[in-house]
Design goal:
This protein is of the alpha+beta class. The chain contains four helices and five strands; from the N terminus they run H-E-E-H-E-E-E-H-H. The model has no long low-confidence stretch (mean pLDDT about 90).
Length: about 120
């Protein structure tokens, strides 16, 4: 089985991906591969907060547990994907990135990623 750091590096090497951060549900960075413009500690804390609140939104709407979300901003896309019971994967991508295959892979390999944690 591939080490966790290699999985993160491979995700970060995909076309259009600018950074990848694996974070705990408490908002602490576990592993990351991102450019200098990203502060892993700040991004981890904010992403965990967003995941918690988005989860509450889904529960309030009767949709159940939050698994994956795509947030589109003026200069990029942020994907939040559950990676185990309490951990999250934050993927930063450019606005022109084709995220369809990435979303498919994240869904298909969620269980395998969780076993690495």
């Amino acid at each position: 089985m591939m080490p966790l750091s290699e999985v993160v590096q491979r995700l970060a090497a995909r076309d259009g991906v600018e950074g990848v951060l694996l974070l705990s549900g408490d908002g602490l960075p576990i592993e990351h591969a991102a450019g200098a413009r990203v502060d892993p500690e700040t991004l981890a804390a904010l992403a965990a907060t967003a995941a918690r609140h988005t989860g509450l939104l889904g529960e309030g709407a009767g949709f159940g547990e939050f698994a994956t979300g795509v947030l589109e901003f003026g200069r990029g896309i942020l994907i939040l994907a559950r990676a185990g019971a309490d951990d999250w994967l934050a993927v930063l991508a450019g606005t022109d990135a084709d995220i369809g295959p990435l979303l498919y892979d994240l869904r298909q390999h969620r269980a395998a990623l969780a076993t690495l944690l």
